[in-house]
Amino acid sequence: MDSYARYPSLEGRHVFISGGASGIGASLVEHFCEQKACVSFIDIDEQAGSLLAQRLQRQGGQVAFTRCDVIDIEALRASIAQAAGAFGPVEVLVNNAARDTRVPLSELDVDTWDDLQATNLRHAVFACQAVFAGMKAAGGGSIINFSSPSFMRRSRDICAYSSAKAATIGLTRTLSRDMGDAGIRVNTVLPGWVITERQKSLWWSAELEQQVLENQSLHQRVKPEDIARMVLFLAADDSQMISAQTFIVDGGLV
Q1: Catalytic residue among 41, 65, 87, 161, which?
Q2: Is position 4 annotated as part of the catalytic site?
Q3: pLDDT digits (tens, 9 = 90+) for 222-252
């Protein structure tokens, strides 16, 4: 990471990340620790989250993990309150938690639809609500919501997930106005085809990867750290006049 930007404004800043135990989320946790921020993160995977936190703590990171399922809004609120008690008000919120479950339209039922909205959209709304008062008292903050280019690519069998991710952009733009008077910036990041271990195990293939790389303007894998570096910029004071915006990091695929 030494060859990339350092952000002095992030040092000591309290960052709260959902879905931080693996994949892009783990890279976010690692990058913010590298910037000497105080990092609180949650995930449903207690083992992976605990191991990551312990490793970063041994390296000197100010980091704390709490097991939390973001579908449980009361537990999410409690996790944010607990984090604020440990590190002070949340100054950067990264709503990263998501699940890109594929369900053909013919097999989609109401319970699955509701579950995917809760996993991919609802928690972001209430996490923003939970940090608002603390950010306002602190004089401002930065919120980064995660969307997906899947709805732009018209991806198959993913309408519930894509609908939630399209709605996230609307949420960002609306909240940027609702929270702007308090000095809070709200932006959206859309990661491209980042190959996580979950995707490898469920649906990725060498043929699909080759197809994706050929269709990107830049013919190389988009990695978790590519996403993390965009989020660092949006969290730092360097982006202090950027809000209500959408940033796609996908190597030029859409």
Answers
A1: 161
A2: no
A3: 999 999 999 999 999 999 999 999 999 999 9
